Amino acid sequence: MKRRIGILTAGGDCPGLNACIRGVARASYSLFDTEIVGIQDGYSGLIEGNYREMKQSDFSGILTLGGTILGTRRTPFSMMRVIEDDQVDKVKAMKQNYKKMKLDCLVCLGGNGTHKTANLLSEEGLNIIGLPKTIDNDIWGTDVTFGFHSAVDIATDVIDRVHTTAASHGRVMVIEIMGNKAGWLTLYSGVAGGADIILLPEIPYDLDVVCDALRDRAEHGKTFSIIAVAEGAMSVEEAGMKKKERAAYRAEIGFSGIANYLAKAIQEKMPEIEARAVIPGHMQRGGSPSAYDRMLSTNFGVHAAQLIAGEQYGQAVGMTNNVVTHNPLSTVAGKTKFVPRDGHEIRAARAMGISLGDKNKKD
Ligand code: F6P
């Protein structure tokens, strides 16, 4: 049995992409007669026909390497069927290049957007397998995505380091953690780093509640406080606005990121304290994957190779109850896995006395 496999990485990168590519490749080489084509820069490479034949040696020495050897780019799903100025029919071009490369299947490593396009290509008749990567951990159908735990480690280290300087200066430190729609990374690193207040996109915050929590700490003799806030967190008022309205409101107030905004707003409401914003940004996506992510990425990659061996296409690999498994792409694409407001992690955070910025103190 011979299989010619295309591999691409799309969307934002994360630690573990190379480990996963290596997992797919090594397991494929050992399971069947394999040829691998590396597609450059995600779906844009598939559209433009930018690809190269890979050798087995290309997959050596990349287990611990951050980023992706294939490059990646964001090619929005919403634009896939839109003909732009270049007049390129993107879906047609992807199908043509798949044929031109003589692929038996295409393995797409990516997040929510990547899975939507993967599903579109599957519906168009191509043999597709999706692999769940993102530091946001927000892909439906899997308990965990690769890249997430590495980012939790990095963000926790940031919070740990900020803790000591916060204590020395007696300041309120507002740390902005990545995650626009889902707050998994903020919640995990916030709890792991001992944050006092954790603000998530899933739970709109009330600034007065945040300030009350800070006052409460001060009254109990705590000289500093740590706020872990997700990039996509918003106030109760903003949550009540339509997307465009919110964007207009933020433009009007000169919003330059949630941590900057909150540090200033808190200081205005509580002139007696000094607040600072910390934004680790893309550091959270950089560097070598953690041991956990190397293991997870490898296992996911091996599972993809096993699906290819069994010609089981149109599937998204994932983890359920600690077992690596797969779900039809059509059931995963287009859904986001949010932090459940009544989930055990949220209940544990509340039980620890962490403020989530809302009025509901107990669950
Ligand atoms: O999806 C991963 C992620 O890091 C999000 O947490 C963040 O909102 C976004 O990507 C940042 O994207 P970019 O790398 O395009 O700035």
Structure description:
The protein has 363 residues and is α/β, with parallel strands linked by helices. The chain has two domains: 3-147 and 289-332, Rossmann fold, CATH 3.40.50; 151-285 and 341-351, Rossmann fold, CATH 3.40.50.460. It is built from 13 helices and eleven strands. The chain has helices at 17-31, 43-48, 90-100, 112-123, 148-169, 184-192, 207-219, 236-239, 243-252, 258-269, 291-309, 329-332, 344-351; strands at residues 2-9, 33-39, 51-54, 105-110, 128-132, 172-177, 197-199, 225-230, 275-278, 315-320, 323-328. The strands form two sheets. The protein has a seven-stranded mixed beta sheet with strand order 3-2-1-4-5-10-11, with helices on both faces. Strands 7-8-6-9 form a four-stranded parallel beta sheet, with helices on both faces. It is elongated, with a radius of gyration of 22 Å.
Quick overview:
The protein has 363 residues and is an alpha/beta fold. Helices cover 40% and strands 17% of the residues.
Characteristic terms for this protein:
363 residues; alpha/beta; Rossmann fold; 7-stranded mixed β-sheet; 40% helix; binds 6-O-phosphono-beta-D-fructofuranose
Q: Report how far apart the termini are.
A: 56 Å
Global Rg: 22 Å
Structural class: alpha/beta
Tally of contiguous helical segments? 13
CATH architecture of the largest domain: 3-Layer(aba) Sandwich
CATH topology of the largest domain: Rossmann fold
- Please report which band the strand proportion falls in: under 5%, 5-15%, 15-25%, 25-35%, 35-45% or over 45%: 15-25%
Order of helices and strands: EHEHEHEHEHEHEHEHHHEHEEHH
- Biggest sheet strand order reads 3-2-1-4-5-10-11
**Strand count:** 11
Q: What bound compounds does this protein have? A: 6-O-phosphono-beta-D-fructofuranose
